[in-house]
Protein: Glucose-6-phosphatase 3
Amino acid sequence: MDALHTAGIRFAEALQSGPPWLEKFWISVTSLADPKCIFTVCFPLAYYLDRKVGVSVLWIGLVSEWLNVVLKWFLFGERPFWWVHESGLVNKELVVLRQFPVSCETGPGDPSGHCMITGAALWPLVTALTALASRHSRSLAVKLSPFGAYALLQLAVGLSRIFVLAHFPHQVVSGLLAGAALGWGLQGRTPAASTPGFFVAAALALLLGSLALHSLVIAAGIDIDW
Structure:
C-alpha cells in the first residue's frame, strides 16, 4: 500500500502545481459537493421538479451516507495530509504539498464520501433529465448530455478531494464506483409512495443500526477512531 499511497501523493503534488486560478476552483468544487448539499439543495430542487425524483434523491442520499460511514469503519483508509507525516515520507523524500483549511479531515478515508454520496444521490436526477431530453430531442448528444455533465462533475469532485489532500486517488475511484452502483441499484427501489413517518423510522433505524455496529466493532477490539 505504501507504493500506492506514494503514487497518490505525487499525483496530488502534480495537481497542486497547476495554475493559481485552479486553486479557487478546486476548493469551490469540494465545498459545493459536500454531502450535506444533497439534503439542503439537491433534494428540495429535485422534489420541486418532480416528487418521485425528489424522494429518490433523498432516499438514496440517506442510504449512501449511512453505508459510506460503515464502509469506512471496515476499509479504514489513510488520509494523505496525515499519511505523509505518519509514514515518514517527508523525511525520506522531497514532498511539496500545500495545506488548506479543508485538508485536516480526520477519520478513515476509504471510500470518498463526497464522490460516493453525491454520485449515488444525483443518479435519479440525471436519469430523469436524460429521459426528459430523450422525449424532446433525437440528438444523441442532447440525450447523453445529462450523463456527460454527471461524469464531468464527479471527475471534478474527485480531483478536488485529491487536491485538498482529503483522499488518495484510489479512494476517489472506489467512491465513484460505489456511488454509481448504489444510484443505479437503489433508484428502482425507492419507497416513493411511503409516508414521511416511514422515512423518519428508516432514519432512526439506520442511526440505531450504526450505533449498534459501532459498539460491536469496538467490542471486537477494532479501534474505529484510530
About this structure: The CA atoms of residues 115 and 176 lie 5 Å apart. The chain has one domain: 1-220. The two ends are 18 Å apart (CA to CA). The chain has ten helices and no strands.
